[in-house]
Specification:
Layout lengths: L1 H14 L7 H17 L4 H29 L1 H15 L3 H15 L3 H14 L15 H29 L4 H15 L8 H8 L19 H25 L2 H13 L6 H13 L6 H9 L13 H31 L2
């Protein structure tokens, strides 16, 4: 049933893509802000309490719905799984942006492609701020940022939730993964820097003065960040392996090993860009990250080419092949389970 639910959810998303700022996303963030406002006293243990409370509530709701649906009819349980996967996966979110950018570049509309990229990055949870300082509007820079963002987005929106959907029972896997990701991003910032707080400040409501201007990491969000890194440790390496298998394997492994030797192997984004860039034969990492790779005692320099419009097609092709790879493996596991009964 799990494989059928996954295929149905992906087909529905291809026909009607889920906006990044959808009502489920807003509801979860509102609950996260409510829990934080009730438990945040500036200590790490309070972040643990907040994460446990929110995770238990959401996972309990999913488990109860899954159980009740299974008691009524298997088809209803299938619908529950389809709904969970539809709201936790997001493949169409970056494939559509790729298409719009390719159309703009084909028409020599470089500013238009840049606007599509900026809108996509601003709406996507995969943006970790690594490229916010870049303002170059050249075709190479736009394509580089787009491919890098797609590689990270494909992992966080497809491969990560899919892995935990296969591993954990029921439909709690993708919910737990997506919740940990959202909370690690939401709670890593001071409460005054959330979009809701910004709107309240603009309306004259104001925020506590002690929270304004703080730049150090928030202790409250440390637990959510650690949980997300633990949950993502194996999936991110499987995603990198998928890029290597479906692209240039030798260069991908070379860049992967080089990133680890240079001390960036624990960085999720650096690992994905190293393996993905090597698989494509393109330099998709930002110059600052490439400088870190080259400056270490065991540094390396990847002699890839700068991406252009054709590199966009290669990037989306690599993502599609990787998706088909993991779907095929999941289908084989499902078939083996059916034959083993």
């Amino acid at each position: 049933m799990g494989f059928i639910a996954l295929i149905v959810a992906l087909l529905i998303e291809q026909g009607r893509s889920l906006p990044a700022d959808n009502w489920v996303h807003r509801m979860v963030l509102a609950l996260a802000d409510l829990v934080r406002s009730s438990t945040d006293a500036g200590q790490r243990q309070h972040g643990l309490v907040g994460f446990v409370v929110l995770a238990v509530v959401m996972l309990a709701v999913v488990l109860v719905l899954d159980w009740l649906a299974g008691m009524v009819h298997p088809a209803l349980r299938l619908l529950v799984h389809v709904a969970v996967l539809y709201f936790t996966l997001g493949f169409r979110q970056f494939s559509q942006a790729f298409t719009e950018m390719q159309v703009a570049l084909a028409a020599d509309d470089t500013p238009g492609a840049r606007r599509v990229l900026d809108r996509w990055v601003a709406q996507s949870a995969a943006d970790d701020g690594a490229d916010r300082s870049e303002r170059d509007t050249s075709v190479h820079e736009i394509c580089r940022r787009a491919i890098a963002h797609a590689l990270v987005g494909a992992h966080r929106n497809v491969f990560g939730p899919l892995f935990w959907y296969v591993v954990l029972p029921g439909a709690i896997g993708p919910v737990l993964y997506r919740l940990a990701e959202l909370l690690s991003q939401r709670w890593s910032k001071p409460a005054s820097e959330t979009p809701e707080a910004a709107r309240a400040q603009a309306a004259g409501i104001g925020v506590p003065a002690v929270a304004i201007g703080r730049s150090e990491p928030e202790p409250y969000g440390l637990v959510a960040t650690v949980v997300y890194r633990v949950l993502d440790w194996l999936p991110v390496r499987l995603s990198a392996a998928g890029f290597a298998i479906m692209g240039n394997f030798e260069d991908a492994i070379y860049c992967w090993r080089g990133a680890v030797s240079a001390g960036t192997g624990r960085d999720q984004r650096a690992l994905l860009l190293a393996a993905g860039g090597g698989a494509l034969g393109l330099r998709v990492a930002e110059p600052e990250l490439e400088a870190r790779w080259a400056s270490g005692e065991h540094g390396f320099e990847f002699q890839g080419v700068l991406p252009d419009a054709s590199g966009l097609r290669s990037g989306v092709g690599l993502v599609w092949r990787s998706v088909l790879l993991w779907l095929g493996l999941y289908a084989m596991l499902t078939l083996a389970a059916w034959l083993g009964r």
